Amino acid sequence: MLIVGMHVGTFLVVGWSAYLAVLASAAVTRHTNNWAVVVDASRFWFNYRHITNALSLYHSVKRLGIPDSQIILMLADQMPCNARNCFPGQVFDNNMHTTNLYGDDVEVDYRGAEVTVANFIKVLTGRHERGTPASRRLDSDEKSNVFIFMTGHGGDGFLKFQDSEELSSRDLAHTFEEMRVKGRYNELFFMVDTCQAGSLAKQLYSPNVVTIGSAKTGENSYAYHTDFEVGLSLIDRFTYATLDFMQSMQVDRRTKKTTLAQLFASYDPRMLYSNPDVTTHLLQRSIESIPITDFLGSVLHVDVTDAAYPLTKSLAVSDNPSYESLYKVLCSNDSQDDVASIPIAKQRRHDVKWQRLGALFAAFVAIVTALGWLSAPASQSSK
């Protein structure tokens, strides 16, 4: 009987663990908005490829749905206006010169001397001076997934800014922890393209952070093809591989099936001349289950209602008195708790409900299996 009781207890624990795991997954994945911070930390003409690294990722996340209002772009130098640029006002990441990365649709938030370690940390932690415009702020919250991309020159445990100061791995770790304490992210994806990039993540300790660097500690990160008109390399190999993968993603329903694991597996060390360094132990989810659009795309939640939206108070009330209370809530300045009183079925709550029902069903199956296992010896003994 003792052994039987232990088996029953095991089945119950397995079922309950499955239920708790689904609830934990639902809690982690419940985010309502995505933000991106894209940083080129290098100046001087010979670092042309670093601005194209940053602009390439900037355009990629915009294409996948993150608006400019939720992207902070930091460019340390004015390559389009450099006197040595044979394509004035333009920046290209391939020698066909087909797409100008510095067109009218680019919104640079920090440029030139404004790109410093201090300003980068201020953006992430929200410690801005009074009067800083909203366009230069990262207004993320505890339901935000944040993507951070950095490119430049680095070494073991540091990334150089402007060739005059350094962001250390310890600075980065403390900054991410301050973001967590302040409720400025739900999950965070950190990508860096620099020599020994993986060393920047070695001191991170904040939860729900995943990182990838272009090279492991002790390895260099290399440039890709050279343009003979510009006279320089146009892009780095790691960024080129990332861009190639993201451009292959079609913006449709299949996009959400592409996972971080697929992105990480797409890098070929033979092409990169280095080994990408991935850190996943701080995550509460498996990268095989995380769609890449959880960080690099838009977040769309549909609010379903069976009532038409009242264009004006007089029209709504005259046509249907039942709109009176709805109109008052929509037009009031009260808290969000009042807005929640509107009879609207939230899609995300609906999804969580079905996840919980699925977990309960899994626990039920485990219990039934345990009972069936117990009844089998009894029937055999009766024979």
TrEMBL record:
Name used for this protein in its record: GPI-anchor transamidase
Pfam families: Peptidase_C13
Transmembrane region(s): 6-28, 357-376
Active site: H153, C195
Pathway: Glycolipid biosynthesis; glycosylphosphatidylinositol-anchor biosynthesis
InterPro entries: GPI_transamidase (IPR028361), Peptidase_C13 (IPR001096)
Lineage of the species this protein comes from: Eukaryota, Sar, Stramenopiles, Oomycota, Saprolegniomycetes
Keywords assigned: GPI-anchor biosynthesis, Membrane, Signal, Transmembrane, Transmembrane helix
Keyword Transmembrane helix on entry: yes
Family stated for the protein in its record: Belongs to the peptidase C13 family.
Alphabetical list of Gene3D superfamilies matching this protein: 3.40.50.1460
GO biological process, one term: proteolysis
GO CC terms: GPI-anchor transamidase complex
GO MF term set: GPI-anchor transamidase activity
Recorded superkingdom: Eukaryota
